[in-house]
């Protein structure tokens, strides 16, 4: 028979949370205005199908995400960014 003192349970190690929380790309650079003519920047917030990436993937604040959405839509209407595509690079 096994005594209760002999039973040992493995507990997970308590590791300190060393991962840094991701921050908004616009907040780090202190940008107040997202320029719709800068399509090189806006291209990073669009996936390969031409869809605008959500806040959970871009780590932008709600205010910056709204400004980003407007800038991407304006850039599309001018013709700098495509609305939809198969081979977006």
What would the keywords be for this entry?
89 residues, 4 helices
Structure overview:
By secondary structure, the chain is an all-alpha fold. The protein has a single domain, classed as Ribosomal protein S18 (30s Ribosomal Protein S18, Irregular). The protein is 33% helix and 0% strand. The protein contains four helices and no strands. The radius of gyration is 23 Å and the shape is elongated. The model has no long low-confidence stretch (mean pLDDT 82).
What is the CATH fold-level name?
30s Ribosomal Protein S18
CATH superfamily: Ribosomal protein S18
Helical proportion, percent range: 25-40%
Radius of gyration: 23 Å
Shape: elongated
Main sheet overview:
none
Average pLDDT, rounded to a whole number, is 82
Which CATH class applies here?
A: Few Secondary Structures
Number of domains: 1
Oligomer: single chain
Distance separating the two termini: 68 Å
> Which consecutive residue ranges, at least 5 long each, have pLDDT under 50?
none
Structural class: mainly alpha
What's the helix-strand series?
Answer: HHHH
**What is the strand content?**
under 5%
**What's the architecture in CATH terms?**
Irregular
């Amino acid at each position: 028979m096994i005594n209760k003192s002999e039973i040992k349970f493995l507990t997970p190690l308590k590791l300190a949370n060393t991962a840094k929380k991701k921050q908004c790309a616009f907040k780090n650079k202190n940008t107040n205005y997202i320029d719709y003519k800068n399509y090189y920047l806006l291209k990073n917030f669009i996936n390969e199908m031409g869809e605008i990436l959500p806040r959970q993937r871009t780590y932008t604040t709600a205010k910056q995400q709204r400004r980003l959405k407007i800038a991407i839509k304006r850039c599309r209407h001018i013709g700098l960014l495509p609305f939809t595509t198969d081979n977006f690079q």
